[in-house]
Design goal:
single chain; mainly alpha; rod-shaped; Protein SlyX homolog; coiled coil
Length: about 80
């Protein structure tokens, strides 16, 4: 095998590796984009839950002031 043939084989090998690497990079990019969208969705749900918890705490604090004035219910 001549030096020229060896060089051609090495270049073909590098081109093959580059093709696989480009495919992997594209796949990883798609995955990162998908996970970024999912993460944004999770953050929005967490914010919504935080607002809901705050609202429930606020609502229940108003009920506590009324319940302190009322006698406890009878026990059966």
């Amino acid at each position: 095998m001549s030096a020229n043939d060896n060089l051609i084989k090495r270049i073909e090998n590098l081109e093959t590796q580059l093709t696989f690497q480009e495919d992997i990079i594209d796949s990883l990019n798609q995955l990162v984009t998908q996970q970024n969208a999912e993460l944004a969705n999770v953050h929005e749900k967490i914010r919504w839950l935080g607002r809901k918890v705050s609202q429930l705490q606020h609502d229940s604090s108003g009920e506590n002031s009324n319940s302190e004035q009322e006698p406890p219910p009878p026990h059966y």
